[in-house]
Design a protein that fits this description.
The complex is a heterodimer of chains A (233) and B (414). In chain A, helix 3 (100-111) runs parallel beside helix 5 (144-157) and helix 4 crosses helix 5. The mean pLDDT of chain A is 91. Chain A has a single domain, classed as 3-Layer(aba) Sandwich (Rossmann fold). Chain A is globular, with a radius of gyration of 18 Å. In chain A, a hairpin with a 2-residue loop joins strand 4 and strand 5 (67-68). By secondary structure, chain A is an alpha/beta fold. Chain A contains seven helices and ten strands. Chain B has 414 residues and is α+β, with helices and mostly antiparallel strands. The model of chain B has no long low-confidence stretch (mean pLDDT 85). The two termini of chain B are 34 Å apart. The radius of gyration of chain B is 34 Å and the shape is elongated. Chain B folds into two domains: 3-57 and 273-412, no CATH class; 64-267, no CATH class. Chain B has a six-stranded mixed beta barrel. Chain B has helices at residues 8-20, 22-57, 89-98, 133-136, 149-153, 163-169, 211-217, 237-251, 267-310, 312-320, 325-362, 377-404, 407-412; strands spanning 64-69, 102-117, 120-129, 140-144, 158-162, 180-183, 186-195, 207-210, 226-231, 262-266. The chains are: A alpha/beta (233), B alpha+beta (414). At the A-B interface, helix 2 and helix 3 of A face helix 1, helix 10, helix 11 and helix 13 of B.
Chain lengths: 233, 414
């Protein structure tokens, strides 16, 4: 599904440069649920951004579902992101003047899908996250957990191969975090491949595999016994 | 390529971002609205002024000069200075034949005459004229006809009376054509009633009689009062005036450097002053209007730039979700053009209303100062085209600004 080999990335800081990723090798199979952990500055966000094609590596190989991701220009990256990836952000990043349905439909709009079809599909995905009744509500009228569910529906809308989550529970209280995790686990059960950055141990332990980063290299990469989130809900 | 313009979603996006910043968007549009309003109202008024001038001068062939004899100021060829120069019919004929660029020369004579009818009488300015006069100074006939060649040939005793003259000599609504009036105790048949123009060039005329009849009853021989010279449109009337005077000096034995022997009034020169003023007004109007417009469009660009700055994160999100830089740019340009065009169309419409108001206030009646103040459809189209072009150009700045930031940076923005 996802194959990364010898990935390097450094950022220029003044005259010198900061070497953030120092040769990452990572392979993720379909249906996996991987947590990327590390303290701040370990390079976990940079890695996720490169996988998310929001950033480009200096060196190394990145193959997504058999497709080598290289020589990306902005347009190509945009098309790939739209087709292959779904993003879940810590701060939800919903567009605040659009209602839930419109937010979910946005990736489909950029796919060039017809309005009616798009709305049907968006409504279906909103239904899946249990918010069909809230379709016409603006983000500010929804709770944090609901907003994150809208964001998840949006990430799913384009039916991506890979779901990328950057601290998806970072802005939520424990109870809501567990609800969201239960939801993400359910998606994984249905076969979605999920890659998640987190620094919370209990959230990471709800994944099936934990990759620990420190100073730009992978310290530990281990499959773990998944803790189901439902038991906390 | 332009399919997106007909896409409901494109406009949904435009309206969404408009609604998000309603007050600000409206305030920005005021700049463009004001610019286009100014352009339309000023252009319309300038046109109205031009129309009213044209109405005033409409009766005249404006490329004309009037020349008459005065007293000499230099002794020449045995003549003392102070001699009164008398123009003759043959002078007029020679001017017509020899000066380049002349359309026609109309000799005229004028005198005061006492007119009596029944028990009413009055003193009026009477002119002896050729039918050609009608070509230089179009007579507005209320009834009847102007002098024709047969009148000239037979020295007919026929007369045209001005409306004022008619009112003094006739009862209200009384039939005048075919009636007789006594001019200097001679019976003249009335053949026409005319209306005096709004602007009178030269002495006012209350009556016209055939030139030959005039010469006969006043014993003028071939002496004429003055001549009206009309130049062909492509010739410079000032040159014609100079050439004519030189020729007349030669014919009348006047010193070539004598500046006082001939009086003249150059209608063409006066008219071109006014048209020059009008052209200047129009130029100024375009200049002011377009400058205001550009300022307004810049204000829109500026606001969009701020809006884009505020929406950096949103744009980052959109790009993470798969919006290409082109789609982002396109949307921003459409917004800019939309704002400019809406402001522009509202400006054109309100400008039109103001012109209607101006027309109602100043455009009615025969002595209106602004006649038919209006702008042509072509001007409206030019204005709209200009707005679209300016809107597009100004939209490109925030558009490029918006996509110059990498999505990853845009997403980090708080």
């Amino acid at each position: 599904m996802l194959k990364i080999k010898g990935l390097h990335k450094s950022y220029p800081i003044g005259d010198s440069s900061l070497h953030v990723l120092k040769g990452i090798d990572l392979q993720v199979e379909e249906g996996e649920m991987v947590a990327i952990m590390g303290s701040s500055g370990s390079g976990k966000s940079t890695l996720l951004n490169i996988i998310g094609m929001l950033d480009e590596a200096d060196e190394g190989e990145y193959i997504l579902d058999g497709l080598p991701i290289e020589n990306l220009n902005e347009k190509k990256a945009a098309v790939y992101r739209n087709k292959f990836l779904g993003f879940i952000f810590q701060s939800f990043n919903l567009i605040n003047y659009k209602n839930a349905l419109e937010n979910v439909a946005l990736p489909l709009y950029y796919q060039g899908m017809k309005r009616k079809e798009r709305q049907e599909k968006a409504l279906f995905h909103l239904g899946k996250v249990g918010l069909a009744d809230w379709a016409q509500h603006l983000p500010k009228e929804l709770s944090g957990g609901q907003n994150q569910r809208v964001a998840i529906a949006r990430a799913l809308a384009a039916n991506p191969k890979l779901l990328l989550a950057d601290e998806p529970t970072g802005a939520l209280d424990t109870k809501t975090s567990h609800e969201i995790m239960a939801f993400i686990q359910q998606l994984n059960d249905e076969g979605k491949t999920i890659l998640m950055v987190t620094h919370e141990e209990d959230i990471a332990s709800m994944c099936k595999r934990i990759v620990r980063l420190r100073d730009g290299v992978i310290m530990e990469d281990a499959k773990v016994e998944q803790i189901r989130a439902e038991q906390y809900v | 390529m332009f399919k997106f313009l007909f896409d409901r979603d494109t406009w949904q996006e435009v309206f969404d971002s408009f609604n998000k910043n309603k007050l600000r968007s409206v305030l920005t549009m005021v700049g463009v609205w004001w610019g286009i309003l100014l352009l339309i109202v000023l252009l319309g008024s300038a046109r109205g002024m031009e129309n009213s001038f044209n109405r005033l001068f409409g009766d005249f062939a404006t490329n004309s000069v009037f020349v008459w004899g005065e007293s000499t100021s230099k002794a020449f060829k045995g003549f003392q200075k102070g001699r009164w120069v008398k123009l003759t019919l043959s002078d007029a004929k020679k001017v017509e034949e020899n000066v380049e660029g002349i359309e026609f020369v109309v000799p005229r004579s004028q005198s005061q005459a006492t007119v009596t009818r029944k028990f009413l009488s009055g003193a009026f300015q009477m002119a002896g004229d050729y039918p050609l006069l009608d070509r230089v100074q179009k007579k507005k006939l209320i009834h009847g006809r102007f002098i024709n060649q047969a009148d000239i040939d037979d020295n007919k005793k026929v007369a045209l009376l001005s409306e004022d003259c008619y009112k003094q000599l006739f009862e209200k609504d009384e039939k005048a054509i075919g009636e007789y009036v006594q001019i200097n105790s001679m019976n003249f048949k009335v053949i026409g009633i005319f209306k005096n123009g709004d602007v009178n060039m030269g002495p006012t005329t209350d009556m016209h009689i055939p030139f030959t009849t005039f010469q006969q009853i006043y014993n003028r021989g071939d002496r004429i009062g003055w001549m009206m010279i009309t130049g062909k449109p492509e010739y410079d009337i000032k040159q014609i005036e100079a050439d004519t005077k030189l020729l007349l000096k030669n014919l009348n034995k006047v010193h070539p450097k004598d500046g006082r022997a001939f009086g003249s009034f150059n209608l063409g020169k006066e008219f071109s002053k006014i048209t020059g003023f009008l052209t200047g007004m129009q130029f100024l109007t375009w200049f002011v209007g377009i400058a205001t417009l550009i300022a307004g469009v810049f204000a829109i660009g500026n606001i969009l730039l701020i809006t884009i700055k505020e929406r950096t994160k949103e744009i980052g999100v959109r790009r993470a979700l798969g919006a290409t830089p082109f789609e982002i740019k396109r949307q921003i340009v459409v917004e800019a053009v939309f704002l400019t065009l809406v402001a522009g169309v509202v400006g054109i419409i309100s400008g039109g209303w103001i012109l209607i108001l101006i027309d109602a206030l100043y455009g009615q009646g025969p002595d209106a100062s602004l006649v038919n103040a209006s702008v042509s459809i072509a001007v409206v189209f030019i204005a709209l085209l200009l707005l679209t072009a300016l809107g597009t150009l100004i939209g490109l700045i925030p558009a490029f600004k918006a996509t110059s930031i990498k999505p990853i940076q845009a997403l980090r923005e708080e």
